[in-house]
Every structure is written in C-alpha cells, then in structure tokens.
C-alpha cells in the first residue's frame, strides 16, 4: 500500500516473499478453526470484518505518516485513543450494550484485565507502535500482525491448557521465518520530504518521552 498509494520505494522480492510467507502462516494457523466453524455465518462475517479492519488499520497508519498532526506526539496519540474510545462507546449505546451493563457483575479479575489493556495495550503498546511507524518501513511495522497470533496461541497453551498441534507449531515456524526475512532486509532510503515530515511531526516522541 505504501508503494502504490504514497509512491514509496517498491518492496524488494525478499520483503514480498516474507509478507507472503507470513500471510500463509496465518492462514495455516487458523485454518483448522475455520474448518470446524465453516457452517456458521457468524464466523464468516467475523473473518470479513477482521479483514476489513486490518485494511483500514493499514490505510490509517500510512496516512498518519504524512498527515499534519499535532506537534506533540503525546497529544496525537492521546487524541487517537480518545476518539477510538468515544466511537466504541457510541456503538455500545446504539446497539443497546450500555443498558445491559451491570457493574456488580464485573469481577476483580475483569477489572485488572481492563486496567492492563488500558495502560499496557493502549497507552504503552499504541505509543510504541506509533514510534516504530515513524522510524521503520511499513513492512517491518506489519510484522507485529504476524507475531501477535503466535504469541496468543502459545500463551493459551501455557496459561489456559489449550491444545498445541503440529499444524500450529509449523505455522508458527513459517511466520517467524517471514519476520526474519522482512527484518533482515536493508531498509530503503527515505525521501527528503518524508524525513522532514517525520522530524517535524514526531519529534515529541524523542523529546517528551513515553
């Protein structure tokens, strides 16, 4: 997308191979679950929505690299998180979820999980993602999407006694190989315009700290 939309350097064959391997590994990772639930329309809709979400996430990430955002990187990150939270709240109100919420039914474990997601997942994790987005190529940034499912599967096996099959291990190996291919490929030289834009908009990440 960065090459077609923003006229950046064309990805090398090595990066394209890495992206293809990573995508193939993800398909192999979830194919067993999809086969079991192939009769469910909800599963099919879920896959389509997740695919669309990944596309729009990538498009938004690429747009933010060149958009004129607040000078303060912390302010930019805060606005994006607040807007996302407000939209999720609006969807919850429209769909009737707010009326079904009962605070007394929320366990302490759920509250701790929510606290972790707010501080580690949203504040620390998203800030790190934005920083990497400004410092690395889109191909390297995308590797998180390949690694996350592998980490989730192994954490499920380690903490929740979920089944770990040979197919899962093979998919994990393929995904990790794709990440190695992408990350070990020399980064293309950035244009002067891109460098100036990044320095002006995101100097706050270096000066303010996170």
Would you tell me the structural class of the helices and strands?
mainly alpha
How confident overall, as mean pLDDT? 77
Integer count of domains: 1
Dominant shape: globular
Separation of the first and last Cα atoms:
29 Å
Order of helices and strands: HHHHHHHHHHH
Rounded radius of gyration (Å):
20 Å
Keywords: Membrane, Transmembrane, Transmembrane helix
InterPro entries: AA-Vitamin_Transporters, EamA_dom, EmrE-like
Domain EamA: 45-183
Transmembrane segments: 43-62, 74-94, 114-132, 139-158, 164-183
Structure description:
- The protein is mainly α.
- The protein has one domain.
- The chain has eleven helices and no strands.
- It has helices spanning 2-6, 13-36, 41-66, 73-94, 97-100, 108-135, 138-141, 143-160, 166-183, 192-201, 204-207.
- The two termini are 29 Å apart.
SSE map:
Layout: H1 2-6, H2 13-36, H3 41-66, H4 73-94, H5 97-100, H6 108-135, H7 138-141, H8 143-160, H9 166-183, H10 192-201, H11 204-207
Helix pairs in contact: 2-8, 2-9, 4-6, 8-9
Question: Which key terms come to mind for this protein?
Answer:
210 residues; mainly alpha; 11 helices; transmembrane helix; transmembrane
What is the gist of this entry?
The chain is mainly alpha-helical and 210 residues long. The chain has one domain. It has eleven helices and no strands.
């Amino acid at each position: 997308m960065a090459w077609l939309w923003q006229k950046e350097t064309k990805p090398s064959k090595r990066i394209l191979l890495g992206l293809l391997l990573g995508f193939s590994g993800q398909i192999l990772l979830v194919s067993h679950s999809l086969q079991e639930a192939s009769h469910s329309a909800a599963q099919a809709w879920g896959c389509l929505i997740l695919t669309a979400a990944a596309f729009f996430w990538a498009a938004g990430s690429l747009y933010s690299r060149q958009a004129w955002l607040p000078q303060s990187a912390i302010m930019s990150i805060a606005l994006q998180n607040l807007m996302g939270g407000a939209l999720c709240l609006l969807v919850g109100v429209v769909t009737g979820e707010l009326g079904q919420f009962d605070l007394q039914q929320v366990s302490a474990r759920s509250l701790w999980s929510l606290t972790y997601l707010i501080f580690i997942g949203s504040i620390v994790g998203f800030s790190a993602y934005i920083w990497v987005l400004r410092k690395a190529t889109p191909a390297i940034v995308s590797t998180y999407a390949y690694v996350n499912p592998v980490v989730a599967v192994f954490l499920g096996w380690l903490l929740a006694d979920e089944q770990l099959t040979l197919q899962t291990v093979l998919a994990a190996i393929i995904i990790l190989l794709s990440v190695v291919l992408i990350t070990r490929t020399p980064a293309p030289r950035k244009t002067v315009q891109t460098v100036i834009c990044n320095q002006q908009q995101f100097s706050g990440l270096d000066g303010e700290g996170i």
